[in-house]
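Quick look at the format.
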Amino acid sequence: MCGHFRSLLLAAVLVLGMLSPSMSMGERIKDVVSIEGVRANQLFGYGLVIGLNGTGDKGGTSFTIQALANMLEHMGIHVSPQDLKVTNVAAVMVSASLPPFARVGKKIDVTVSSIGDAKTLQGGTLLLTPLKGVDGKIYALAQGPLSLGGFRAGGAAGGGVTKNHPTVARISAGAIVEKEVPFSLNDKKELTFILDNPDFVTAARVAEAINSKFRQQLAMPLDSGTLRVKVPALFRGNVVNLLAELGDLEVVPDSIAKVVVSEKTGTVVMGENVRVSTVAIAHGNLHIQIKETQNVSQPSSFAPRPPAGGALAAQTEGGTIIAPGGSTVVTPESSVAVEEENRRLLLIPKGNTIGELIKALNAIGVTPRDLIAILQAIKAAGALQAKLEII
């Protein structure tokens, strides 16, 4: 029995040994930082989509006709814009993101968005469109059939069915890179790491992890969001391998205590570091209900006739007096009901976590909308030890 117990104990130690690294794992450095200069660049261009089934630009989009006439002119076909009457062409803006280190010939995805009054881009094909950067230079060329992921079908009377957004489309691998953004890593002697979520503790932990890895002072935090990393002599001219080793190092990122509130949707998101000081909370809702009703007063058929010359004077037809027996009157009636909820006072002791606060508030039936008002009041009272951000 003792040997069996010893075997079970050894197995448990082995299991805990295998689980402990995963339980203490943090985030990889490459998931929490970016490298200065290694970034994407935005491209855009103006183009034409052709082949639409009568759903292209129609009235009020003279620039579409002018662009079509200019394109035909470049192809040796002279035509006046006033003579063009087409409904299968749409003017669009084409946008794309040029990834870092993209070489000539690489294909990237593009997004095509209508800028005219086209009903749908379904079935269209984008003509050759140059994509420029902010410097005005052409970095890619886009062309190809569009993919909408939806549709729009309508009838002659104006009705129809629409699925998703039919005036925005994508072309997978629809642009070819024609010009590269010059950037070299291997000639760097120093790198700058930028934290995705700036925090002094996280910056210090990243620097400590890098210095511990190479056992020398390579990383130095400059502020809460920036670190300067020296390239060791062993990796001069081979910075890619250095970044490969640094990227897999694990750190536990820290974060400030923050509560994010969305007034529009009633969403409340709170971090684990949020704390509440001693505070007493009483929250009651005031419900006001106003109901409007219309009462109809219908007189009987034997009601006395109105006097002659009155508001409802009798009418004569062929010498016969015709007078109504009464008049129907509509009288509005309003009823107002006011109800105030009776909520008990709730005491939240100091040091409680936000989870315990929410549990206590849920016990008295607080809705998300009520929670937003309560958190704002707690923050105003100075008892919420967190940053309250309203979006």
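Next, a different chain entirely:
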Amino acid sequence: MKTIDIRKMSVEELNKKLKDLKEELFNLRFQNTINQLENPHKIADVKKDIARVKTILNEKNA
């Protein structure tokens, strides 16, 4: 997910996206634990997306 796309979202959309990303991260970690995850780098990508969304949320709230 690109930062430009995230900046175009409203605060409500960002909160929903953050919730979805956290759920996805949980599922990826679960799959990784039971050795069903094909691409372990996906976890790092989702963590970075979460950080991007949180950063932009903080900017919009300030």
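The domain at 3-61 is CATH 1.10.287.310 (Helix Hairpins).

See the schema section for token definitions.
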